[in-house]
Specification:
Blueprint lengths: L1 H8 L12 E9 L4 E7 L4 E5 L2 E5 L3 H13 L7 E6 L4 H6 L7 E6 L2 H10 L1 H4 L7 E5 L2 H7 L5 E7 L13 H10 E10 L7 H14 L4 E7 L7 E8 L32 H6 L5 H7 L3
Parallel strand pairs: 5-6, 5-8, 6-7, 8-9
Antiparallel strand pairs: 1-2, 2-3, 3-4, 9-11, 10-11
Helix pairs in contact: 7-8
This protein binds trans-N-(3-aminopropyl)cyclohexane-1,4-diamine.
Trans-N-(3-aminopropyl)cyclohexane-1,4-diamine binds next to β4.
Length: about 290
C-alpha cells in the first residue's frame, strides 16, 4: 500500500503506479540518505527499493546492468580505466569484469547501506565487488569528479537513482563538465537517462547539456525493464573530442571477448544485435526530443 501511495505522488511519474505483490519484507531501514528496503516478490524474485522507488529485481536486473555497461565498453577498442558513479548494488561491476582489457574499476557510491544490503540479499550482483580490479570510494560523486585527474578514464558509467533524492546533482551541467574532463580524448560516458514515455523534457535537457559538453557524439539508447515505470529505461551515450566513436556498431563485440559470456554469471540479455537495435528510436522520440 505504502509503495503504491508514493508512486501516485512521485513527481517522476505523477498519477501512475506499478505495483508488485510483497510476499515478505526482508529489510527496511533508513540510511543517512534514503530509506532502503528489500522484499521478496511473487514473480520477480527479491526487489531493492530506495525511497519507495524500485531500483532492481532479481528477474530483470540483467537488462539494465548489462546494457548500461556493454553499450559503452563494447564501443571502444580496449577499455582499461573505468569509473562507476553509483551502482552500489555491484551489478555494473559484475558486468565490467567480463572485459579482460580492463585494469582498473573505480566506483563511487554515496550510500554504504546499499552496498552492505546488496552483499546480504543480492549475492549475484554484489559478487561484482570481489573483482581485484575494483577500487571502492564511499562518498559523493560530485566531489569525487571534482578531484578526478584529467583524462584518467576510458569510460564512465553513471548508474544513478532518479534525480529526486541523493542523485539530484547528477543531472546538472557542472557534473557533466567534470565527467567530460575525467575522460580521455575519445573516451565514453553512459548515463542512465530515464524513460522516453515519461521524461522527454528531462532527456532533452540532458541532451542539450551533453551536446555542449561532449564534443564527440551524443546518442540515446533504450531497453526494456518491466519493473521500471513505463517498462523502459534509456541511456545517454556520449564521447569526448578525439577518435570518433560509432556507438551504433560495436567495434569491440562482447561475443569476441574471451570468456566474457560466462564470466562469473552468464550474460542473459545483452548481445551485439540488441546493442545496435537499442539506438533505433520511435518517431515521436526522434521528432520531439531531436534525440536522433
Ligand atoms: N543500479 C540499479 C539501477 C539504478 N537505476 C535507476 C533505478 C530507478 C529507476 N527509476 C531509474 C534507474
Amino acid at each position: 500500500k505504502a509503495l503504491k501511495e508514493y508512486y501516485f505522488n512521485n513527481p517522476m511519474w505523477p498519477g501512475e503506479a506499478h505495483s508488485l505483490k510483497v510476499e515478505k519484507i526482508l529489510f527496511k531501514e533508513k540510511s543517512e540518505y534514503q530509506e532502503v528496503m528489500v522484499f521478496e516478490s511473487s514473480v520477480y524474485g527479491k526487489v531493492l527499493v530506495l525511497d519507495g522507488i524500485v531500483q532492481l529485481t532479481e528477474k530483470d536486473e540483467c537488462a539494465y546492468q548489462e546494457m548500461i555497461t556493454h553499450l559503452p565498453l563494447c564501443s571502444i577498442e580496449s577499455p582499461k580505466n573505468v569509473l562507476v558513479v553509483g551502482g552500489g548494488d555491484g551489478g555494473v561491476l559484475r558486468e565490467i569484469a567480463r572485459h579482460s582489457s580492463v585494469e582498473l574499476i573505480d566506483i563511487c557510491e554515496i550510500d554504504k547501506m546499499v552496498i552492505d544490503v546488496s552483499k546480504e540479499f543480492f549475492p549475484e550482483l554484489a559478487l561484482g565487488f570481489e573483482d581485484p580490479r575494483v577500487r571502492l570510494s564511499v562518498g559523493d560523486a560530485v566531489e569525487f569528479l571534482r578531484q578526478a585527474a584529467e583524462g584518467k578514464y576510458d569510460a564512465i558509467i553513471v548508474d544513478s537513482s532518479d534525480p529526486v533524492g541523493p542523485a539530484q546533482e547528477l543531472v546538472e551541467k557542472p557534473f557533466f563538465e567534470n565527467l567530460a574532463r575525467a575522460l580521455r580524448p575519445g573516451g565514453v560516458l553512459c548515463n542512465m537517462a530515464e524513460s522516453m514515455w515519461l521524461h522527454t523534457h528531462l532527456i532533452q535537457d540532458m541532451i542539450s547539456i551533453c551536446r555542449e559538453t561532449f564534443k564527440g557524439s551524443v546518442h540515446y539508447a533504450w531497453t526494456s525493464v518491466p519493473t521500471y515505470p513505463s517498462g523502459v529505461i534509456g541511456f545517454l551515450l556520449c564521447s569526448t573530442e578525439g577518435p570518433p566513436v560509432d556507438f551504433k556498431n560495436p567495434i569491440n563485440p562482447i561475443e569476441k571477448i574471451e570468456g566474457a559470456l560466462q564470466h562469473r554469471r552468464e550474460l542473459r540479455f545483452y548481445n551485439s544485435e540488441i546493442h545496435k537495435a537499442a539506438f533505433c528510436l520511435p518517431s515521436f522520440v526522434k521528432k520531439e526530443g531531436n534525440l536522433a
